[in-house]
Design a protein that fits this description.
By secondary structure, this protein is mainly alpha-helical. It contains 17 helices and 4 strands. It folds into 2 domains: about 260 residues, no CATH class; about 110 residues, D-Maltodextrin-Binding Protein, domain 2 (3-Layer(aba) Sandwich). The chain has a 4-stranded mixed beta sheet with strand order 2-1-3-4. The chain is elongated.
């Protein structure tokens, strides 16, 4: 154990001297996360406010069949009616950005309204446009007109307005704000700290394996009295420490980002977020990160030691980050929850367990199964890593 600790200290000093490792472990999580989060939030809100203030160019076809609706559209200062547009050209004009939307009133509209029947009005818009402003504006003016027609019918026929609402639905959402935010934040957190954990561990692992082979310092370490297991464990603990530090610092960066965007977040939501991210929750998340970091570190060392150079190891491991993030993305899909089956799937169980831990709905059995799955995988990865480090053809590949 003493030799392992000595190797750990030596490798840790080498790692923190490397600017790439410091960049991926400290600078990116602490600066990149809060800056990106704050900018994204502010730009989104600003673009939405800007879109709400912009005028929408529309075509109104069938004005003679719904003059009151046409007057309502004209009265809206944010709706501009373009004249001389044929119905056959509406779709092409919207796709070409010459129009934002259109209202089409069929000829039978006034007859159906006069007969107290349901009439139809067509609206055209492109849902891929910014914040669906055209759709919201068109629906808003038509809904107001519809309400006006219905109110007129009720007064003319002397009907009770409650006649049309036979059932008054009283919604009672039993989900607390913590549960709602937990599912939202908990889905985003794993995506963030898995990426930073893998990236931080990757650069440290490459530097301590393929990097040492390239520099020619691995032979010196192998000639020491330390066994292969002690050497592997010393390197492994350094890589795992870097991965965990990157993940935890990314969470600190997220908190700083929330603080920086405080004026854009409702106070109630911010208070709940502060209550959620307490010591107990952070500790439980950290225990999920430990075996995951062990798995990543052992896997990275085992693969990187086979490379001839730092560049080759980097080109081998970089595409692997896409594979690693897939289970986290599956955890964001609706309907996928932590149960006895998903708790046994590595990385996915971390994503789902994080959501349940933050929302306060974690089942102890599912959490235990997640731990077992992760520790078994971590142990197997460490064993595999030791096996690879014991092969001469792997260590001295050049």
């Amino acid at each position: 154990m003493g030799r392992t600790l000595t190797i750990f200290k030596k490798e840790f000093i080498d790692v923190i001297r490397d600017r790439r490792t410091i960049l991926t472990m400290v600078v990116l999580p602490l600066l990149f996360v809060p800056v990106i989060l704050t900018l994204t939030l502010k730009v989104t809100l600003r673009q939405r406010e800007k879109a709400d203030l912009e005028t929408v160019n529309i075509a109104f076809i069938g004005e003679e069949y719904a003059p009151r609706l046409h007057q309502a559209v004209e009265a809206d200062s944010q709706l501009v009616i373009k004249l001389g547009v044929a119905e056959a050209d509406v779709e092409a004009l919207i796709r070409a950005d010459s129009l934002d939307g259109a209202i089409v009133v069929p000829p039978d509209f006034p007859d159906r309204v006069a007969a107290d029947e349901q009439a139809s009005i067509g609206i055209y818009y492109r849902s891929s446009s910014s914040f669906d402003v055209a759709e919201r504006r068109l629906r808003g003016v038509i809904d107001d007109y519809d309400e006006e027609i219905v109110d007129g019918r009720i007064r003319r026929l002397q009907l009770d307005p409650d006649l049309f609402d036979a059932i008054a639905v009283q919604e009672n959402d039993v989900a607390t704000l913590q549960e709602v935010l937990g599912q939202t934040i908990g889905g985003f957190l794993p995506y963030m700290f898995v990426i930073f954990m893998f990236t931080g561990a990757m650069y440290a692992g490459i530097d301590l394996s393929a990097g040492e082979k390239e520099r020619g310092t691995l032979e010196t370490l192998l000639s020491s009295p330390a066994s292969r297991l002690e050497i592997v464990l010393g390197k492994f603990f350094v890589v795992a420490l870097v991965g965990i530090a990157s993940a935890l610092l990314s969470m600190v960066g997220l908190y700083l980002g929330v603080r920086m965007g405080l004026e854009d977040i409702p106070q109630e939501a911010f208070d709940v977020i502060s209550d959620i991210l307490n010591v107990k929750v952070i500790a439980m998340i950290a225990t999920l990160l430990l075996p995951l970091a062990a798995f990543f570190s052992a896997m990275i060392l085992a693969l990187a030691i086979q490379a001839k150079s730092f560049k080759q190891a980097q080109s081998t491991l970089t595409p692997l980050s896409l594979v690693v993030i897939l289970p986290v993305l599956f955890g964001l899909l609706p309907g996928i929850e932590l149960n006895t089956k998903t708790a046994l799937i590595p990385i996915l169980n971390v994503s789902l367990a994080t959501k349940d831990v933050i929302s306060g709905t974690i089942e102890p059995l599912h959490l235990v199964l997640s731990y077992i799955s992760l520790f078994v995988l971590a142990g197997a990865s460490i064993w595999f890593c030791v096996v690879w480090f014991s092969r001469e053809e792997t260590l001295f590949r050049s």
